[in-house]
């Protein structure tokens, strides 16, 4: 049984920095601490409005991250240009709306909107960068993602995280079914959004899921217990889920 990889999203370290326009806390330092605690990768979302992560952060992280740097971004010309210049290990394409607090839905991978995503996938592939698409946990959506050339699908766990009571098993089934479809298509499967210490084990237990992107809950816990402990606590839960498969 192999471990599930934990990619820590350090955006919210930058959120605290930007709240006062200071130089601290530095998400670059946080990334190094996450790696020292055992994280398998670092994720940052360079948003169009630069509300948290800045271009400078991604540039430095490209040089300092020793594991895997996953750049989350919208499928825009500007972001594709930046990614092709900086060459992170991986790009995850996400939908982005200015007014949202965080990424809300999955990418639209069918119809006219899909062309933009497909073009971004091709441009990133041309530069030798692997591409993940952040999508709804749905077999048809996974299939469309494959048509667009994605190497990885990141299944949106926000619906599961928001579900309560009897709705939870249905959301877990949707995630498991989408993960199975992706594996059958030969794609790698990641998942993320809204995952927290009390709800992560069940997602880590889904066959096929190889990697989780987790941000807010880890950074929030780190305020109280320190980043090293917060990352190690999460890694323990990932192992608990994966070993229980
Ligand atoms: N995966 C994707 C694609 C995201 O956009 C986000 C939020 O930036 C996350 C994972 C992490 O979500 P959370 O901060 O809720 O753990």
Features:
alpha/beta, TIM Barrel, 11 helices, eight-stranded parallel barrel
Helix content: 40-55%
Compute the gyration radius: what is it? 17 Å
Q: How far is the N terminus from the C terminus?
A: 9 Å
H and E order: EHHEHEHEHEHEHHEHEHH
Give start-end ranges of low-pLDDT stretches. none
- The helix/strand class is alpha/beta
Distinct bound molecules: pyridoxine-5'-phosphate
Summarize the main sheet.
8 strands, parallel, barrel
Brief characterization of the structure:
With 245 residues, this protein is of the alpha/beta class. It has helices at residues 11-20, 27-36, 55-64, 77-86, 113-126, 139-147, 158-162, 167-184, 200-204, 216-225, 227-243, and strands at residues 5-9, 41-45, 69-73, 90-93, 130-135, 152-156, 188-192, 209-214.
Q: How is the topology of this model organized?
A:
Elements: E1 5-9, H1 11-20, H2 27-36, E2 41-45, H3 55-64, E3 69-73, H4 77-86, E4 90-93, H5 113-126, E5 130-135, H6 139-147, E6 152-156, H7 158-162, H8 167-184, E7 188-192, H9 200-204, E8 209-214, H10 216-225, H11 227-243
Parallel strand pairs: 1-2, 1-8, 2-3, 3-4, 4-5, 5-6, 6-7, 7-8
Helix pairs in contact: 2-3, 6-8, 10-11
Structure description:
This protein is an alpha/beta fold and 245 residues long. It has a single domain, classed as Alpha-Beta Barrel (TIM Barrel), CATH 3.20.20. Helix content is 48%, strand content 17%. The chain is built from eleven helices and eight strands. It has helices at residues 11-20, 27-36, 55-64, 77-86, 113-126, 139-147, 158-162, 167-184, 200-204, 216-225, 227-243, and strands at 5-9, 41-45, 69-73, 90-93, 130-135, 152-156, 188-192, 209-214. An eight-stranded parallel barrel has the order 1-2-3-4-5-6-7-8, surrounded by eight helices. Strand 5 (130-135), helix 6 (139-147) and strand 6 (152-156) form a beta-alpha-beta unit. The mean pLDDT is 96. The structure holds pyridoxine-5'-phosphate. Pyridoxine-5'-phosphate binds next to strand 8 and helix 10.
């Amino acid at each position: 049984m192999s471990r599930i990889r934990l990619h820590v999203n350090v955006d919210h370290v930058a959120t605290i920095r930007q709240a006062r326009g200071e130089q601290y806390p530095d998400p670059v330092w946080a990334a190094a601490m996450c790696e020292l605690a055992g994280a398998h990768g670092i994720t940052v979302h360079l948003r169009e409005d630069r509300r948290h992560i800045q271009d400078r952060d991604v540039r430095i992280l490209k040089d300092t991250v020793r594991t895997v740097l996953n750049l989350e971004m919208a499928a825009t010309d500007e972001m594709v240009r930046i990614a092709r210049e900086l060459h992170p290990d991986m790009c995850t394409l996400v939908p982005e709306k200015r007014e949202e607090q965080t990424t809300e839905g999955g990418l639209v991978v069918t119809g006219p909107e899909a062309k933009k995503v497909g073009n971004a996938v091709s441009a990133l592939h041309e530069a030798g960068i692997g591409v993940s698409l952040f999508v709804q946990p749905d077999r048809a959506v996974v299939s469309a993602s494959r048509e667009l050339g994605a190497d990885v699908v990141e299944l949106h766990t926000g619906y599961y995280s928001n579900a309560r009571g009897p709705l939870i098993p249905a959301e877990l089934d949707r995630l498991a079914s989408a993960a199975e479809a992706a594996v059958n298509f030969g794609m790698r499967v990641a998942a993320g959004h809204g995952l927290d210490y009390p709800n992560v084990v069940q997602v880590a237990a889904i066959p096929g899921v190889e990697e989780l992107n987790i941000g807010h809950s880890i950074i929030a816990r780190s305020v109280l217990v320190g980043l090293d402990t917060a990352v190690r606590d999460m890694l323990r839960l990932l192992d608990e889920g994966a070993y229980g498969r």
